[in-house]
Amino acid sequence: MTASKGERTHRRPQVDPLAALRTPDDPPWDVYLIGTVFLDIVFTGLDSAPVRGTESWARGMGSSPGGVANMATALARLGLRTSLAAAFGDDHYGEYCWDALEQGEGIDLSPSRTVPGWHSPVTVSMAYEGERTMVSHGHEPPPEDQTAPEFPPFARAAVASLTPGVRAPWIAQAAGKGTRIFADVGWDDTGRWDLAGLADLEHCEAFLPNAAEAMRYTGADCPRAAARALTEHVPLAVVTLGAQGAYAVDGRTGETAEVPAIAVEAMDPTGAGDVFVAGFVAGTLADWPLEDRLAFAGLTAALSVQEFGGSLSAPGWSEIGAWWRRVQSLEGQDPTALRRYAFLEDLLPGEEAQPWPLRRAVPTIGFRRSA
Fold first, then answer.
1. Cα–Cα distances in Å, from 170 out to 66, 116, 177, 186, 312?
2. Do 181 and 211 contact (CB within 8 A), yes or no?
3. Cα 167 to Cα 149: distance, rounded to the nearest angstrom
4. Which of 48, 94, 212, 312 is least crowded, fewest Cβ atoms below 10 Å from its Cβ?
5. For residue 58, pLDDT beyond 60
């Protein structure tokens, strides 16, 4: 499968956060990503963690693209022109994920490819008590089918997931072209937690670990101290604090910002971290103040956990607008909290705007359509 197969339908976002900044000389893409697309199968409505030797029934189930698709979808739904280089499985799961991303979300898949004879990686996620447990299976695509191009396309920004002890040559190449690199990192299974092992951090503009990761990498005893320590290695450090929100330090200016989390009833936290990063990238590319970027990232992440299904839980501007109108209509709202999100007023579509129907997770894929 190639991106030219069939006619692509690009969704037109209700809001272009970069509209005031666009020029004819802009790069073709706002954000470029590389990664692996999984099929996510999410079970929700579990009262507790599954117990060994027993059977648990979930009240809800959803299937959706996962892996790097979480980030790509969140970026596209915020109006950013997104290009993805990924390997797709040569199976029905891969076909479903390709269609959902290209046709459903308008993501450019021209750097992506379907790998003959390779099956889609799968993750089963079980959500309960505000947390999740995941089981995954998959294989690396054959070396000749690795998707990272020799020369990444020029984009305003790229989002990279750093791997301890491994350099990704495309990151240095993209940064050398002027692409702004935003990076996160996964849990260090080696247990070393050595910042020197994150060699590509030197090419990054921003690093967005969670509190546990930040403290382990820096040896700091609190997340805020860890964020300050990280600015010795990267210009902008953003540390997510879970239920406490997020804290950021810009080492170039000395500016700091902290925004509390929005209290919501979480259905499924799958992909919320990716949505947070996407919101922060959108605000940064739009040149918003640091506090507004943090607030927007936290808001998008909070809205995402109220849906289930990883990538397809990401909010669009209609959902953001509906939230803003709803909280303003409720009595007893903290005026300070409302002012924190007042920057949304000039961005959001009016109530009369026709929303683009967002795809959401479906129980299973491949339903036969009735005549």
1. 22, 24, 11, 19, 28
2. no
3. 15
4. 48
5. yes
CA–CA distance from 17 to each of 73, 76, 310 (Å)? 16, 11, 23
User: Is the pLDDT reported for residue 328 higher than 80?
Assistant: yes
Which amino acid appears at position 370 of this protein?
A: S
Q: List C-alpha distances in Å: 258 to 27, 146, 248, 250, 343.
A: 32, 39, 6, 12, 16
